[in-house]
Design goal:
The protein is mainly α. It has helices at 2-20, 24-36, 38-49, 53-69, 71-77, 89-109, 121-139. It has a domain at 86-141.
């Protein structure tokens, strides 16, 4: 089903980017990424509702790792250099994803004995980095 729907999603995203003036990179980074991550979101939310927090975290990181592994076969199948043909703004997105993933992993490894705030500082940093990166991608359109 994914192979059938993917070309339509890419075409719709391109048209939406053109009509809205937001730019293909911004639409791809936000809306297309959200649409293609919905199955992982449902699985993660289901795991959280079941109280299986480790499963939820593993689902997120496993999906991230699998997507990175797909770069090698895609690069081999693509005529020319795959990453050379994408927007340079994606380098910012890639760096942000690596940094955010590292922060979340370190937050999982560091066990605090007593919480002092409603939200942990690493979560505030992750949220700030996500919205800051989206803002920079939006400005780079």
């Amino acid at each position: 089903m994914i192979f059938v729907a993917a070309p339509f999603l890419a075409d719709a995203a391109g048209q939406l980017a053109e009509l809205s003036g937001l730019g293909g990179t911004f639409i791809g980074t936000t809306l297309v990424a959200l649409a293609t991550s919905l199955p992982e979101l449902v699985a993660t939310l289901t795991a959280v509702r079941m109280g299986a927090y480790d499963l939820a975290i593993g689902n997120i990181f496993g999906s991230n790792a699998f997507n990175m592994l797909l770069l090698l076969p895609l690069d081999l199948a693509f005529p020319g250099a795959l990453l050379a043909s994408v927007s340079t703004t994606h380098a910012l997105t890639c760096f942000a994803v690596i940094l955010i993933t590292a922060i979340v992993l370190l937050g999982q490894l560091y066990r605090v004995e007593q919480r002092t705030f409603f939200i942990e500082p690493d979560a505030v940093l992750v949220i700030t980095l996500v919205f800051g990166t989206l803002w920079m991608v939006y400005l780079a359109r």
